[in-house]
Amino acid sequence: MSKSHSDIGLIGLAVMGQNLALNIADHGFQISVYNRTVEKTEKFVAENPNTPGGLIGAKTLQEFVKSLAKPRKMIILVQAGKATDAVIDSLVPLLDPNDIVIDGGNALWTDTIRREKALKEKGLRFIGSGVSGGEEGARFGPALMPGGDPAAYKELEPIWNAVAAKVDAKTGAQLGGAAPGKPIVGGVPCAAYIGENGAGHYVKMCHNGIEYGDMQMICEAYALMQGLLKMKAPEMGAIFSEWNQGMLGSFLIEITADILKQKDPMTKKPIVDVILDTAGQKGTGKWTSVNALDMGVPAPTIAESVFARCLSAVKEERVAASKILKGPSKKYKGSKKALIAAIHDALYCSKICSYAQGFQLMREAQKEYKWKLNFGEIAQIWRGGCIIRAVFLQKITEAYQRDPNLANLLLDPYFTKTVKKAQENWRKVVALAAECGVAAPTFGSALAYYDSYRSARLPANLLQGQRDFFGAHTYERTDKPRGQFYHIDWPEPSRPQLEIK
Ligand code: 2AM
After folding, report:
1. Cα 251 from chain centroid (whole Å)
2. Domain containing 476 — which CATH number?
3. 107: CA distance to ligand 1 center in Å?
4. Neighbours of 174 (CB within 10 A)
């Protein structure tokens, strides 16, 4: 028996939308669904007749809106950008005050801020929620990062908590075993209110930036094992499986192991050896990096991972350059076991720096947008459901529980100690990569970040001298209070040194 009105609705039945709708229905909520192309709605509803909550197909937006219990809650899961605006524009005239529109797409956070404001002016409530974990996550438990009207989220919360991924309260390990019609019961949901207006989508964007970093760092570990140790894919796969048991344990390390062990069905060679080395990107890593530049927050390792994809994309140019530009002839001759252990440590230290940068970004954004982000909780949400889910996020949660105002992740005692212990190996790997000509941009960038951040004095004194020389931009002095600015009349470049008496 279906209810007279659905608990929630969903617009946009591409794979993500279909899977999230099924996830919601699996938890006993009745959900109305609508898609621009009606046949898709009909097919989807017909193929899923017996969900615990029930799916109600709507042919028109009017019918869809009428089918929802008031105040209405509806999720939009269409392409980010123009399509989302188009759906909102056609929905708005059909809604009543206090109805809640939820955008679950990968929206740019500034669009979410704009949409929230526009809908608020019309008496409507808007939630921009990051939904992470891809198709599988949407179906059996995504990480959910909702931002927007806090009272509206209270009304959505029971549904969001139910459908989110679940982790073990103590270990932070993701609870698995969900199947169609059999959702996970118990555990801590990977969903929590993030903050006002665009906060949820902002945090989701940073998640993606961090994900770019993680992926590139893993690729560099692979490149080093391959380049310096001449290891073959299955052997490297075994190493990643081993690493997955320790502090690097994560979804991305696990799938890397699986990918390296996978054979190509056509040639029977390892599949990685036949996949072309040009990376694609959809833009969220770029957004993160552009925003880091806009806010003046150092996130070089995340940006480096975006540039690494860009460099990979100019395959033909690289092939041509490879015939002209020579590298060193040095080969690694030391212990294989020791180098593998060092690469592990380099990966872990680089990862810590990359996360430190991602959290710095959120910290700065919260000032700019007046959000009150709970960093421990954000790390907690990321422990399950999403692409960057990892054992190590538990350490970040603990770090922010120890000190919610932590200036930088590197300053938490656990991370300080970890990097101190592992840095010798990290430095060895970066040096060896340079000496042997294997590109390891994020490993090197993270190390430079670490060395810069721990420097009481950087060469920016000279830089300010240069700026004052050619542009009279002034400088502050080491022997005077901050905020006092000085300038001297520099000599013309061709003139002799000023004589100081
Ligand atoms: P469609 O099946 O009719 O193409 C992902 O592309 C999802 O977004 C699909 O469900 C698609 O509907 C929907 N979509 C894309 N652009 C849209 C638009 N301008 N209005 C409504 N739905 C749109």
Report:
1. 13
2. 1.20.5
3. 15
4. 20
Average pLDDT over residues 38-65: 97
Protein residue closest via CA to atom 12 of ligand 1: 36
Mean pLDDT lowest for which of 18-22, 111-115, 497-501?
A: 497-501
**Does 248 have pLDDT greater than 70?**
yes
Taking the CA of residue 40 as reference, the ligand 1 atom at the shortest distance is 2
Ligand 1 within 6 A of 78 CB?
A: yes
211: annotated active-site residue: yes
Q: How far apart are the first and last CA of the chain?
A: 96
Residue 67 belongs to a domain with what CATH number? 3.40.50.720
What's the whole-model pTM score?
0.95
Residue 2 is assigned to a structural domain of this protein: no
Does the CB atom of residue 79 touch ligand 1 within 6 A?
Answer: yes
In angstroms, what CA-CA distances link 62 with 17, 54, 68, 113? 19, 20, 11, 26
Domain stop point among 453, 469, 489: 453
Q: Probe ligand 1: pick from 34, 36, 38, 84, max atoms within 8 Å of CB?
A: 36
Number of domains in the chain: 3
Residue 433: which domain range? 202-372+380-453
pLDDT tens for each residue of 191-215: 999 999 999 999 999 999 999 999 9
Options 211, 261, 286, 351, the catalytic residue: 211
Which of 177, 197, 217 is the endpoint of a domain?
197
Q: Which helix (H) or strand (E) holds 32?
A: strand 31-34
